[in-house]
């Protein structure tokens, strides 16, 4: 036996409702008021689908004075802004009246709730699976003994099955029963209402048949139904928690203390969330900024790769703006906070992540669309079968048995497996190629993309500068490397990598923003910027460079380049031949981006893009009808990646970028070609499987409604349909399809 799926009232899946269906807390203390506008963040429990989202947002927006009401399905966070006399209690009451739990939002509460839900679903799934295995052993004995087993023995077998099923149905089914009751109590219908009806009806009929000594009972179908449904619920809960992990990790970056300087000049630690615009802050060497600030004192180099994607440090002087996420690599810096922590660049990216999660959670998968059409048909057929047999034969018992048999034999076994089995096989094929797929529905989205937006540094390029050796620089390399070994600057490390192992010059000193110097055997050496060695900056060549001067000798220039991946040009050409648009969207300098674009024959490119401008650019492309794939590796890409239709990250990407991506690949970008080919093949296989499932049901429904069904026939039919779609999906992994 297998799972029976049913739709939400709007065709979308629903999740677990809160224990009492309407739990709410006093949230008045959590309302924030700024310039006459009230703001409240709520945690809504039990909302898992687009129908839930529309219903909740609609109810809150209908309240007088509400400006905005946005619910994120991935983490349950709802942000509400309003004006006037409306209270937080009135808002929570409107949500609770729909059957959802609601309380003040807390990141820790979300994590705890998600983990608790996962654990409960896993335990319930284990109980249902254990019970199903034992009941199936008894059912097989009954099927095998048809015609030979006595009625008393068969009735005993059914009774034992019922005793096993009863506690399993109560324990494992409570998730669905509570959700269904909460919806019905508030005069709504969700997915769990028909599921609960099918379980209760099948169990009750089986008890009736057992007590009457009937030949058939469906205890195995009840428990197997719950088992398969709980598998889906558990996997959904796991994926939602992982999706939220990206925003949670980013929040952890912001949840730090900062050093605030008061009017007397005294420094003290303060929580970032308590900082307001105008506060004076101190950023120590090696510290990461969590608040956007304008520098008023200090001269240092900062690593802005997290914000801009630029791999090389930038020198920052008084008057410059330092964005949250940047790391101070040199001398301490003092600055004035430009905004509150909640309005920093990091917070903007966090909001993009939440918006992206919400957009993807509203995406309806092929399986969802198929189920939304299929399940109403099955339930309507079962109801018509019941009424028809009741009218024809007048026997309520027979009519109920036919209706239940119709529900069981048409349980969407093949339909339930059609998409997952194709996703599993496709994921296995990708894994063998060094590609880790994050979610099954990503295959469907990736298969539909027609435009790819690439970040530059670390994605199209290697992500680390490499020395371009010349005659003069090659001769000076050993001595220059002695100074470079005392620095952690990326260009110094590239110089050392080219020179190989060696000693460090004694007494090396570093001047922030300029370079290194040391006296060796009476000769003064300098390594750093052009101005550091006395070269007019206007006459220096463009691109990343270091200059080395030994005494009075003419300075020698070391030039560097961030080389593209060896397979980048070939991959771009092949993507174009497939009719897919390609462009570069980078935070790097225009010259570096244009040079790479010419190398890879990419006509469209954008440089010096901020995280927000990247997101805005993708939104413009989306509104133009593009199905976008974003490929990036940094925090500055994470917001845009989450908002894209689909996204990929290389194996060396930041954790947050990997978390928001749909797949992570190792090696060069040629892996993208394999992802595209496998995704298209998987989507094709899913559609084939749905066709096979439809054919099976066209055959099974007439058999069921005419009363020609026994448990043995039903089991064989459903097993055969499942086997067919599974074998079809396995073709994805066949060697001959590797270049499909």
SSE topology:
Elements: E1 32-34, E2 37-45, H1 50-61, E3 66-71, E4 77-82, H2 88-96, E5 101-104, H3 107-144, H4 151-185, H5 192-212, H6 219-254, E6 257-261, E7 267-271, E8 280-283, E9 293-297, E10 300-303, H7 305-308, E11 314-316, E12 321-322, E13 327-328, E14 333-337, H8 345-361, H9 366-393, H10 396-409, H11 413-432, E15 435-437, H12 441-447, E16 451-454, H13 456-460, E17 466-468, H14 471-484, H15 490-499, E18 509-511, E19 515-520, E20 523-528, E21 545-550, E22 556-561, H16 568-577, E23 581-585, H17 590-600, E24 604-606, H18 611-623, E25 628-631, H19 635-643, E26 646-650, H20 655-660, E27 663-665, H21 671-705, H22 711-730
Parallel strand pairs: 16-23, 16-25, 23-24, 25-26, 26-27
Antiparallel strand pairs: 1-2, 2-4, 2-5, 3-4, 6-7, 6-8, 8-14, 9-12, 9-14, 10-11, 10-13, 15-27, 17-22, 18-19, 19-20, 20-21, 21-22
Radius of gyration: 32 Å
Distance from first to last alpha carbon? 35 Å
Give the structural class: alpha+beta
- Annotated CATH homologous superfamily of one domain: HAD superfamily/HAD-like
Shape: elongated
User: Architecture of one domain, according to CATH?
Assistant: 3-Layer(aba) Sandwich
CATH class division of one domain: Alpha Beta
Continuous helix count = 22
Question: Residue-averaged pLDDT, rounded?
Answer: 78
Beta content comes to 15-25%
- Which stretches are poorly predicted, pLDDT < 50 over at least 5 residues? 1-23, 736-740
Q: Would you report the number of β strands?
A: 27
The largest beta-sheet arranges its strands as: 15-27-26-25-16-23-24
Helical content (DSSP H or I, runs of 4+): 40-55%
């Amino acid at each position: 036996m297998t799972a029976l799926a049913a739709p939400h009232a709007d065709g979308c899946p629903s999740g677990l409702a809160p224990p009492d269906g309407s739990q709410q807390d006093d949230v008045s203390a959590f309302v924030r008021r700024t310039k006459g506008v009230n703001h409240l963040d709520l945690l809504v429990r039990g909302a898992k689908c687009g129908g839930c989202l529309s219903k909740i947002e609609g109810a809150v927006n209908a309240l007088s004075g509400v400006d905005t009401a946005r619910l994120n399905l991935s983490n349950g966070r709802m942000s509400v802004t309003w004006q006037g006399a409306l209270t937080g209690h009135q808002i929570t009451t409107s949500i609770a009246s729909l059957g959802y739990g609601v309380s003040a939002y807390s990141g820790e509460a979300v994590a705890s709730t998600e983990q608790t839900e996962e654990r409960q679903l896993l335990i319930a799934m284990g109980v249902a699976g254990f019970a199903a295995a034992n009941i199936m052993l008894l059912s097989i004995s009954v099927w095998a003994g048809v015609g030979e087993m006595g009625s008393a023995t068969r009735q005993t077998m059914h009774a034992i099955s019922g005793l096993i099923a009863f506690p399993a149905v109560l324990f494992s089914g409570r998730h669905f029963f509570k959700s269904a009751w909460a919806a019905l109590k508030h005069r709504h219908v969700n997915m769990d209402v028909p599921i609960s009806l099918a379980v209760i009806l099948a169990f009750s009929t089986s008890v009736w048949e057992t007590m009457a000594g009937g030949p058939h009972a469906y205890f195995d179908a009840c428990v197997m139904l719950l088992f398969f449904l709980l598998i889906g619920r558990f996997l959904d809960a796991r994926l939602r928690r992982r999706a939220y992990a990206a925003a949670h990790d980013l929040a952890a970056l912001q949840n730090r203390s900062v050093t605030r300087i008061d009017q007397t000049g005294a420094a003290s630690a303060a929580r970032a969330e308590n900082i307001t615009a105008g506060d004076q802050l101190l950023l120590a060497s090696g510290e990461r900024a969590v608040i956007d600030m304008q520098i008023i004192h200090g001269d240092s180099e900062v690593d802005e790769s997290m914000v801009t994607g630029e791999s090389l440090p930038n020198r920052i002087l008084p008057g410059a703006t330092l964005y949250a996420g940047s790391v101070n690599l040199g001398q301490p810096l003092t600055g004035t906070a430009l905004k509150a922590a909640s309005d920093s660049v990091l917070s903007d990216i966090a909001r993009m992540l939440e918006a992206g999660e919400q957009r993807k959670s509203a995406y309806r998968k092929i399986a969802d669309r198929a189920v939304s059409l299929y399940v109403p048909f099955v339930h309507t057929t079962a109801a018509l079968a019941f009424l028809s047999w009741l009218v024809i034969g007048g026997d309520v018992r027979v009519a109920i048995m036919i209706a239940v048999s119709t529900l069981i034999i048409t349980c969407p076994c093949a339909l339930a497996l059609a998409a997952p089995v194709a996703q599993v096989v496709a994921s296995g094929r990708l894994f063998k190629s060094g590609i880790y797929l994050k979610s099954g529905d990503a295959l469907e989205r990736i298969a539909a993309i027609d435009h790819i937006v690439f970040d530059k540094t670390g994605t199209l390029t290697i992500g680390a500068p490499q020395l371009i050796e010349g005659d003069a620089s090659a001769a000076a390399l050993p001595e220059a490397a002695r100074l470079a070994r005392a620095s952690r600057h990326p260009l110094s490390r590239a110089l050392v990598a080219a020179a190989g192992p060696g000693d460090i010059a004694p007494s090396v000193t570093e001047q922030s923003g300029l370079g290194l110097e040391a006296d060796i055997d009476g000769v003064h050496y300098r390594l750093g910027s052009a101005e550091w060695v006395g070269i007019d900056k206007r006459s220096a060549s463009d691109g990343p460079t270091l200059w080395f001067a030994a005494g009075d000798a003419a300075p020698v220039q070391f030039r560097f380049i961030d080389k593209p991946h060896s397979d980048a040009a070939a991959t771009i050409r092949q993507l174009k031949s497939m009719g897919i648009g390609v462009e570069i969207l980078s935070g790097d300098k225009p010259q570096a981006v244009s040079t790479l674009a010419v190398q890879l024959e990419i006509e469209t490119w954008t440089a010096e893009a901020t995280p927000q401008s990247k997101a805005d650019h993708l939104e413009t492309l989306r509104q133009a009808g593009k199905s976008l794939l974003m490929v990036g590796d940094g925090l500055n890409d994470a917001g845009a990646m989450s908002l894209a239709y689909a996204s990929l990250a290389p194996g060396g990407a930041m954790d947050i970028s990997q978390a928001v991506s749909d797949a992570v690949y190792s090696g060069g970008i040629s892996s993208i070609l394999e992802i595209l080919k496998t995704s298209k093949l998987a989507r094709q296989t899913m559609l084939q499987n749905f066709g096979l499932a439809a054919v099976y049901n066209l055959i099974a429904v007439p058999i069921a409604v005419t009363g020609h069904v026994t448990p043995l026939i039903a089991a064989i039919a459903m097993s055969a349909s499942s086997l067919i779609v599974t074998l079809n999906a396995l073709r994805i992994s066949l060697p001959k399809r590797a270049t499909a």
